[in-house]
Write a structure and sequence with these properties.
By secondary structure, the chain is mainly α. The protein has helices at 4-21, 23-28, 34-59, 67-99, 105-134, 136-157, 166-174.
């Protein structure tokens, strides 16, 4: 994508994807639960990042990338954004607010949001330096591994909170 029109179109498509898929957790978090949304989201994000890494690796083999490889890369980005919007993005905040004890909820959510913003800033500020050192495809593979660790963390450390009262959740997390 080289023209302003193409870049604007891509930005609009990403925005529409995010907006449409944010509806998934809105309607499903109380039906299927937070944990399945987090697990499917992280698995989908990891797969999308691997697909993007493979696509970008193939792009390096060509002077002018074939349209189908560009399409794979675009679909990988949209898939990543979609999986994030359908789970990890919104469900993390809901899950955090449920699991922090009431007497510490305001401070805990403030800290959670601050750490979230800090980590996002670190990722944004280090992306170019990282890909210059290890290549763009390897950078996305590295991010896929990190998301893989997130999947493992959710699987082993986060119990389901659907259908439980805040008091029950506090007892559930108080045991650990």
């Amino acid at each position: 994508m080289t023209t302003t029109k193409e870049l604007l179109g891509a930005t609009i498509i990403v925005g529409l994807t995010k907006t449409a898929l944010i509806l998934v957790p809105m309607f499903l978090s109380d039906r299927v639960g937070r944990r399945p949304l987090l697990l499917s989201s992280t698995a989908g994000m990891a797969g999308s990042l691997i697909m993007l890494g493979l696509g970008l690796q193939m792009v390096d083999d060509f002077v002018i990338a074939p349209t189908w490889i560009v399409a794979v890369c675009i679909m990988a980005v949209l898939s990543y954004v979609g999986f994030f919007s359908a789970g990890l993005g919104p469900v993390t905040m809901a899950y955090s607010s449920e699991t922090i004890p009431l007497k510490l909820r305001a401070q805990g959510m403030g800290l959670a949001i601050a750490v979230n913003r800090l980590v996002c800033g670190v990722v944004a500020m280090t992306f170019i330096s990282i890909y210059e050192e290890i290549s763009i495809p390897c950078t996305f593979y590295m991010y896929a591994v990190i998301i893989g660790f997130t999947f493992v963390f959710v699987y082993f450390c986060l119990p389901e909170t659907r259908g439980k009262s805040l008091e029950e959740i506090e007892v559930l997390f108080g045991k650990k």
